């Protein structure tokens, strides 16, 4: 059975795994992302690949990267949370490893993984939203990945939700990513702590009194321990994310789920508070639409290996090959694919 390596490149970590044709991870590793050094990021990807292939005979590498990836799935054109600008990732990793390499936007790869193996394996249309340092989006429409005119379609995190809002790494202001991502959570926690408010006592204790030392895990840990301000920060993020997901669903009307990942792995047992007096969240809106569906993938970050691995051994979402397995309408369950894509 053929093996491949999937590498998931995020704003803070590079996760890699060896995956078989059934989607099972047989080995894994991870390294930090040197997000300000383009060459060092590629070097760490190569190091992950070399570590994983020592004991495994692999056929190729799939790299899922945050940012805008060109239609040829070779070059990262721009990554708001990384230092990549027009970096030929495919060619550099292939030259260093001697393996076939495919580069894909990480949210597209996540969407394809959920479509083939996860929460959306029984539908033809779905939205996948990845939540981490930033927010990514992937669309599967009528059984194919939607890439847009230049390969950078479905960047849902860069939908503007606040005119003249926070400056985003993409250059615009008011993108959803600035209100519903891990970086937004940290920014708001640090702002609260910088005010030396009594509400920030626990966060300042965890960061030894330095607001700039506050991290996302500190906030989620404090929330898990019952710190009310930390819970409100998470609730604010959740409400912004909910507003975004409702907008995506209302405009695109998919049959399948939105699938938040990353930040969404906060413990489900953490109770969320009622909106507090210093809440910065948008007003809650209640919606009820016929046929709407939202399911959250329970998989952790290792699933990035499976989704990227698929892109290394198959021609993802080629419409000519996908079309034979399309359902006649989006309300019917799609048959399982009988052949490799």
Features:
2 domains; 341 residues; Nucleotidyltransferase, domain 5; alpha+beta; disordered C terminus; 5-stranded mixed sheet; 18% strand; single chain
Structure description:
This protein is α+β, with helices and mostly antiparallel strands and 341 residues long. It folds into 2 domains: 3-113 and 299-325, 2-Layer Sandwich (Nucleotidyltransferase, domain 5); 121-265, Nucleotidyltransferase, domain 5. Helices cover 32% and strands 18% of the residues. The chain has helices at 38-53, 89-97, 106-117, 177-180, 182-194, 201-206, 216-224, 228-252, 303-313, 319-322, and strands at residues 3-9, 13-20, 25-32, 58-65, 68-69, 76-78, 85-87, 100-105, 126-131, 135-141, 144-145. The strands form 3 sheets. The protein has a 5-stranded mixed beta sheet. Strands 5-6-7 form a 3-stranded antiparallel beta sheet, with no helix packed on it. It has a 3-stranded antiparallel beta sheet with strand order 9-10-11, sandwiched between helices. A hairpin with a 6-residue loop joins strand 6 and strand 7. Helix 1 packs across helix 2 and helix 3 (106-117) crosses helix 9 (303-313). The radius of gyration is 20 Å and the shape is globular. Mean pLDDT is 79; it is low at 263-281 and 283-341.
């Amino acid at each position: 059975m053929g093996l491949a390596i999937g590498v998931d490149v995020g704003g803070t970590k590079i996760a890699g795994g060896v995956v078989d044709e059934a989607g099972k991870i047989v080995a894994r590793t991870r390294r930090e992302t040197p997000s300000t050094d383009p060459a060092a990021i590629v070097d760490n990807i190569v190091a992950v690949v070399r570590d994983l292939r020592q004991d495994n005979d692999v056929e190729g590498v799939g790299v899922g990267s945050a940012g805008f990836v060109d239609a040829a799935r070779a070059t990262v054109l721009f990554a708001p949370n990384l230092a990549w600008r027009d970096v030929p990732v495919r060619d550099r990793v292939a030259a260093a490893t001697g393996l076939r390499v495919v580069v894909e936007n990480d949210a597209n790869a996540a969407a394809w993984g959920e479509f083939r193996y996860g929460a959306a394996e029984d539908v033809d249309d779905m939205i996948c939203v990845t939540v981490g340092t930033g927010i990514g989006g992937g669309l599967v429409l009528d059984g194919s990945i939607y890439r847009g005119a230049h390969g950078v379609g479905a960047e849902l995190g860069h939908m503007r939700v606040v005119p003249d809002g926070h400056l985003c790494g993409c250059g615009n202001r008011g993108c959803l990513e600035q209100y519903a991502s891990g970086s937004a959570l940290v920014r708001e926690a640090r702002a609260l702590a910088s005010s030396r408010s009594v509400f920030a006592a626990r966060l300042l204790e965890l960061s030894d009194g330095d607001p700039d030392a506050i991290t996302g895990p500190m906030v989620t840990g404090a929330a898990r321990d019952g710190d009310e301000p930390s819970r409100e920060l998470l609730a604010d993020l959740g409400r912004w994310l909910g507003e975004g997901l409702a907008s995506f669903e209302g405009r695109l009307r998919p049959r399948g789920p939105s699938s938040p990942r990353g930040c969404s792995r906060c413990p489900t047992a953490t109770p969320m508070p009622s909106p507090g007096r210093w809440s910065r969240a948008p007003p809650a809106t209640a919606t009820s639409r016929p046929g709407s569906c939202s399911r959250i993938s329970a998989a952790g970050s290792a699933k990035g290996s499976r989704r990227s691995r698929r892109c290394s051994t198959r021609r993802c979402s080629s419409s000519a090959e996908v079309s034979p397995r399309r359902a006649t309408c989006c309300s019917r369950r799609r048959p399982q694919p009988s052949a490799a894509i």
